[in-house]
Amino acid sequence: MQEKLGRSYHALLSASAVSNLGDGIGTVAWPWVTSLLTRDPMAIALVALAFRLPWLLFSLPAGVITDRFDRRRLVVAMDLFRSLVLVSLGLVVALAVPSDPAPELSLPGSPLYWCLVVSALAAGFAEVLRDNAAQTLMPAVVPRSRLEAANGRLWSVEVLGNSLLGPPLAGVLLALALPLSFFANGAGYAASAVMVHSIRDSARPPKGAVRQHWLVEMREGARFLWRNHLLRDMALGVGVLNAVDFMMRTAMVLYAQEVLHLSSEGFGLLLTAGAFGGIAGGLCAAAVVRHFGASGALRLTLATICIQLIIIFLWQSALPVFAVLVAGEFMGMIWNSVTVSMRQRQVPAHLLGRVNSVSRFFGWGTVPIGIALSGLTVTLSQETWGRAAALSMPFAVGAAIMCVATLLLWHRLSREALGKVAFA
To answer: Which domain holds residue 23?
Structure first.
């Protein structure tokens, strides 16, 4: 008989559901409001870059903080801070948003644009600490034998809010009034804080570890990950996956409007495409791993993402884009469930926050690179190939990067490599 996941897990799951619903609304609201100010792909990419840059700058210190302080309180505090930032931004948008989009943006002369950039940066720093603390909580609130199932359900709930419910809801809210989308995002974070606050057990970091200088503690986490060849390779792999994924997401804003000719509602629906596969992937993660093995599941993920990007580049129609996003998100959730569960099992509790942060540094620290590369690719190629072709180029570049990464990682993720973990 399987052990129960427990009340604390379900509180964490519910908090993830409402906060990710807010994230899903923000996925559409941030770039859409920015596109009302400018059609410049680099300016739009800069807002996304500001939101993701903290993963590169703050991931490692966030791990030290997570291992030093009450993890439940960290999650609550960061959710409340993000709520304040989003509600404040909604008020600014209500007062300052223009009625007509500008053909080109003069960055120093647009206070609203810089409010978007600064608030994205602030929310991004809070997200780094919040998500690292929440992931470190997981093995303390569920039995280790249920980690794949617990992580899979959590990923499914995140996708449900982030990609299935949030984006179309954002389209409706944007059509009604632009500030509503930011108010709804902030409300989701506030509700999440209340739910996580209800967790009363397993919130404090384990006792027994001697506190040292934060740089020493940070190096300890980095050393553990780097010496574990399997965890290191998976961290580098997810770094490539995330960089390419955000290249695609950033390019999709103008690609959907100018190549696929979608409205704000249609753009929101397009972003939900992968949600169907993602939810199924999270729920089926344990069964898929039992059938294909961890090695087969990880290798299949890499191959699927390569095919996904090639099809989006070659076939510029909403229906095939929808189909490959479903397949890619399904396998992406399998990857997450396998790699996160392995890390949570293998890392000692007193190091988990720091090792998580180092892994997420590699995994999410590459996101700003992918975002910047997306905008740069469009800007440099449109003079040679024209606007429509240039908006498709990030998908071609992403496909090339993924094919190279797949070749390099294929042997490293073999059944033999996953069967023996090296700590030497």
So the answer is: 7-419
Tokens of 135: 């992931």
Answer yes or no: are the C-beta atoms of 230 and 421 closer than 8 Å.
yes
The CA distance from 118 to 354, in Å, is 27
The arithmetic mean of pLDDT across residues 146-170, rounded, is 79
Task: Give tens-digit pLDDT for 252-303.
Answer: 888 877 887 777 677 767 766 777 787 888 788 878 888 888 888 899 999 9
Write the DSSP symbol of residue 260.
S
The CATH number given to whatever domain includes residue 171 is 1.20.1250.20
- Angstrom CA distances, 162 to 19, 74, 169, 273, 309, stand at 9, 22, 11, 11, 21
CA distance 301 to 403: 12
Residue 56: CB atoms within 10 A of its CB come to 17
Residues 147, 341 contacting (CB under 8 angstroms):
yes
Query: Cα dihedral sign for 153, 155, 157, 160?
Result: negative
pTM: 0.71
Q: Is residue 424 part of a domain?
A: no
Q: How confident is the model at residue 2 (pLDDT cuts 50, 70, 90)?
A: low
208 pLDDT exceeds 70? no
Q: How far apart are CA 334 and CA 284, in angstroms?
A: 8
Q: Domain tally for the chain? A: 1
